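Hi support team,

I submitted a single chain yesterday and got back a structure, but I'm not sure I'm reading the token output correctly. Could someone confirm the output below corresponds to the sequence I sent? I've pasted both exactly as they appear in my results page.

Thanks,
R.
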Amino acid sequence: MSDPIPFLSPRMVGQRFEQHSIPLEMLKDFAALEEMLIEVAKWHYLKDHPERKRTPKGFTDGVSLKLTGVEDGSAVPKIGLFVASAMLFPDENQFLLEKARDSVIAAINAAEHDEPIDPHLSEMHLAYFDRIGRGLREGEAIEFNPNNRDRPARLNKVTRRKLTLASTQIQELTEEVTLRGRIPEVDKEKLTFHLQLPEGNRVPASLESQHREKILEAFTGYDAGTRVLLQGIGRFNRQERLQRIESVEHLGLLDPNDVAARLDEFRSLQNGWLDGKGLAPAPAGLDWLTTSFENSYPDDLPLPYVYPTAEGGVQAEWTLGQHELSLEIDLRSHQGQWHVLDLLTQAVSSRDIHLDGVDDWTWLVQQIRPLAGGQP
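Hi R., thanks for writing in. Yes, this is the structure output for that exact sequence:
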């Protein structure tokens, strides 16, 4: 085997990659990319040799792509091309794989700039994007040609969807999902269960042995409102509606006061939900509060009970010993009104805080911790 030939150095963009590291889950994407590149190389060979109906036997047996390092600058995986010196036509194999790489980069650029994709890849090849980039989150991207500032071939959630659905053969696509809900139905014979989402629709999934105990516990507690947090792969139709859960990777029981689960329930509210009055909370505001709470509120503190307010906001309440605490949150301005009532002395204190700031979240935690029995 020869020394590696520099082949591809994509740039990973996003907060998770800022420490020059790549989550292990993303390595699955690069394995799928290697499969795709080999198939595109075969496609180019047959286009260049119209007299042949198939590629030569063992066409890519001596060719492989390997991760050889990670460079600084966000996270930049260095992918090397290895070609066995004993191959009959090593130069042609290298040329075809480089041609395949360029076709993939051109297709991603086309998707990003709303240009035709089909001149670069066939519909069969576009199906690979269902597996490549699936682990990317909002605000993350893979730049396959980062040295070109104008056309860096940026694969993100939007361009991945365009590429996948550019194939008429693809009627569904998969996405990583994090879902909260209840389990109203389990079929032990068929080894399936249904997850009921906050809006009420039920999504089927496989009952796998490693999650069986928690699923059955949640099913038994359905009437009591027991909810679960499920992380896995969901399959969506072209209208972005979740059809089923392809695989369950993690599943856990939620605290009855889990804030994110409660906020999910508020998404189904309509204007007039409170006896003909009451504004529905804005979805964008609920998204912001869910993320802010998960990022800023420590796991070791007691969870509040949250409920919607008539003004379209959210109120959080804690009862800690002789103290009643409340935080009324405006989802549009991200302002909060903090109140503390001492039930013994009837002393009241209050403060306006801005929940976009780290300092105010830190202050809030410092108020709650000593009343919950922890250190200030």
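A quick pointer for reading it: The longest helix spans residues 90-112. Let us know if anything else looks off.

Best,
Support desk
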